[in-house]
Write a structure and sequence with these properties.
Layout (H helix, E strand, L loop, with lengths): L2 E4 L3 E6 L8 E3 L1 H9 L6 E8 L4 H9 L2 E9 L6 E6 L6 E7 L19 E4 L4 H10 L5 E5 L2 H6 L1 H8 L4 E5 H8 L4 H9 L5 E5 L5 E5 L2 E5 L13 H16 L4 H18 L13 H15 L17
Helix pairs in contact: 1-8, 3-5, 6-7, 8-9, 9-10
Length: 316
């Protein structure tokens, strides 16, 4: 069993009302793999960096057990970099600068031994690049796609081609509405699933996540976190936990997908407690289990809640 993440490896410069760290390790592939490796034993990364990428950032990934054969280094280039500012409401942020650098010409080439990956996470990239990856794979058990409003608006036709070829789409509620051209989230979700992905995971930040699979709808709450330091990478961390758990479970059923949504939320809740992926570097199994229990308790419905309450007295 294996998880393959294809995406960005980046420098993030993050400004919040409290701190402003410079050029921390970031990128979708970094967060996905550092999260997935708590569940999956074989986690592979495909991305590109420049000659300015520090050895200690590479060591962070390698020491976590991430397979880096697919990390391309362009010695004369500069690593993709993003700069953003968060407001007191951490759900609100402004992108200050995006420097594509080596990402502008990135054409992923999968090592031969990566092509048999079981679960594939296509991080937020140009849909044409995501198609290149899909064409190099053998027959993965599950393909998971992430995208964003930029690709929805500027490359809709190519994105539709990708959607036809993947099993799961993970997107936030605004992206789902925009993709479907529909304000009602449930109606929009059904329209998006008709485009190809049989499973849709709608992330809603502090309001949790919504899963649509077959004819079932499942809602996972968001765990209230008192000390949020940096929401950057939370969505990618969710994706890594989601994919990693399914790899660990060994099958894809409604129950395992529901559990994967919860464990994705567990990992994201840890990620926001520190800048960059620092929190993902020092978790242990008990911290993950404890927070999973907290999610279960948060969403538990009391046993005396019953449809027999009204009109016929309180159920026994």
């Amino acid at each position: 069993m294996s998880v393959l993440a294809v995406g960005t490896v980046a420098f993030d410069t993050i400004e919040t009302p409290f701190q402003a760290p410079q050029r921390v390790l970031g990128g979708s592939a970094s967060y996905i793999t550092l999260s997935a490796r708590y569940f999956a034993q074989d986690v592979r990364l495909v991305g590109v960096v420049g000659g300015d990428f520090p050895d200690d950032y590479r060591a962070t990934l390698a020491h976590a057990g991430v397979d880096l054969e697919g990390l391309e280094v362009q010695p004369d280039g500069k690593t993709f970099a993003w700069e953003g500012r968060y407001h007191y409401d951490m759900n609100m942020r402004d992108t200050l600068a995006t420097h594509l650098n080596v990402l502008a010409t990135f054409e992923p080439k999968l090592p031969a031994r990566y092509r048999d990956a079981d679960i594939v996470c296509l991080g937020n990239l140009d849909p044409s690049v995501q198609l290149q990856v899909l064409e190099q794979l053998d027959s993965p058990r599950l393909t998971i796609l992430d995208t964003m409003n930029f690709w929805i608006e500027h490359t809709p036709d190519t994105l539709r081609e990708v959607l036809k070829k993947v099993d799961v789409l993970a997107a936030n509620d605004a992206e789902v509405r925009e993709l479907a051209g529909e304000p009602n989230l449930i109606t929009a979700a059904r329209k998006v699933r008709a485009m190809g992905p049989q499973t849709l995971v709608v992330t809603k930040g502090e309001h949790g996540a919504l899963l649509l699979h077959d004819e079932q709808i499942f809602v996972a709450p968001a765990l209230p976190i008192e000390d949020i330091q940096d929401p950057t990478g939370a969505g990618d961390t969710f994706l890594g936990g989601f994919a990693g758990y399914l790899d660990w479970a060994g099958d894809v059923t409604l129950d395992t997908i529901k559990s994967a949504v919860v464990y994705g939320s567990v990992m994201a809740s840890h990620c926001v407690e520190a800048f960059g992926p620092a929190r993902l570097a020092d978790l242990d199994d008990e911290a993950i289990r404890e927070r999973a229990r907290a999610f279960r308790d948060l969403s538990a419905v009391p046993s005396h809640v019953s449809d027999t309450l009204f009109g016929r007295g309180v159920a026994a």
